[in-house]
Amino acid sequence: MASFSIEEFVGNGALKELVPKLLEEGWDDIPTLKIMNSEDMNAINMTQKQKDALEIRSYLHDRDLMQYGDKLEDFGKSLPELLNVDTLALSSEFGIKRGHIARFTDRSSACGIQIPPTHVLPARKRSTSRSPSVNRSDLLSVNSRRMQSTRSHSRSSLRMNETHEISDMKIKDGHIFKGIVAAEPAEPRLCGCIQPPPIIDDVSPYTNIENISVQKLTPEYKIGMERLVKTKTPPMKASGLWRDKPAILLCIRRPGCIMCRAEAHQLYSRKPLFDALGIQLIAVLHEHIDSEVQDFWPRYWGGVVVLDHNMDFFKALGGGKLLKDKFISGFVFNPRAIANYKRAKAMRLEQNFRGEGEIKGGLFIVGSGKSGIAYQFIERNFGDWAPFPEITEICTRLQKSEQVQPGSIEESPEG
């Protein structure tokens, strides 16, 4: 998948001179930039050439073909016109490789992340007032601005340690909600001769994570910023990360792992949706290797990256101890892990094998203040992802709980 680096996205084309204006107007990351519509473009006085360039580069970014951006843009044609160029010309005039031509001409590939019409993205302009009833048929038709949160966040408990009757709740795409603690099933390994490591059934107590010591390695990526934090930041309590705003904490097993990179890329691609829900995105590493952080951010992840040196978040996922698995027993003899690897490999990501890779990761969704842990997902098999419909549902419930009745989660009809 294509990088989230703005410099790589705009290249040397017409958008390069527009970068300061994009930063000023709040179009400061790629997922948000890709949802601009004609009204948004006109609002910042984009030329037709710049509009065409953004459409072309968004299309290429979805297909991991950004290396052809400058040549295709220099041709001076719009995206529909380029898609009608014959394959021979695509190869001879633009140097597109034969294997890449099929990917370029495949118009059925999804462009952008779909967003439910009920989720209203914040207005781009701080001074602009938008009606919450604006119709949004898909993510590309949205006029968006980074959320400037003005809500007072609850400090009372969400009571997430209590049992909620929501395990059978159905989400729009047919996904069955698995509950507050979730994990993919464990399939038999080596005809049942190898048993998977046990996992916990209860959400981790909030007290297990609030005082974890973390160190911020990178800020949230924006246009024009330095690639990494130059000065070493002091350790801080983890509760400071979500003090004012709910957070998704993606605990990454190893940033060079192709399956970890795929999950991070897919989650960050949905950033405009999480912006609309008032949720911040944070990646948690348990090992600090400078080169690995630089390779991972912002190419595969543009959110904040923190270091959990004592691996306390990872221990919390395992009920107080690290969840570990061996390569042979946990991957080679595990059909689900192999399927996860093939899924990530199909996304055309690079990978390496540097760093510790046996400690399982997962995901937390934490409410603001002392609200508590709303959800946790455990990486039972190497490469398991928390289902995106499930993440979206929990984040939607968090948003509703703060807007309607602070300190509680709305029960499902079955509850």
UniProtKB/TrEMBL annotation:
<dbReference type="InterPro" id="IPR036249">
    <property type="entry name" value="Thioredoxin-like_sf"/>
</dbReference>
<keyword id="KW-0676">Redox-active center</keyword>
<keyword id="KW-0963">Cytoplasm</keyword>
<dbReference type="Pfam" id="PF13911">
    <property type="entry name" value="AhpC-TSA_2"/>
</dbReference>
<feature type="compositionally biased region" description="Polar residues">
    <location>
        <begin position="129"/>
        <end position="160"/>
    </location>
</feature>
<dbReference type="InterPro" id="IPR032801">
    <property type="entry name" value="PXL2A/B/C"/>
</dbReference>
<comment type="similarity">
    <text>Belongs to the peroxiredoxin-like PRXL2 family. PRXL2A subfamily.</text>
</comment>
<dbReference type="GO" id="GO:0005737">
    <property type="term" value="C:cytoplasm"/>
</dbReference>
<feature type="region of interest" description="Disordered">
    <location>
        <begin position="123"/>
        <end position="160"/>
    </location>
</feature>
<protein>
    <recommendedName>
        <fullName>Peroxiredoxin-like 2A</fullName>
    </recommendedName>
</protein>
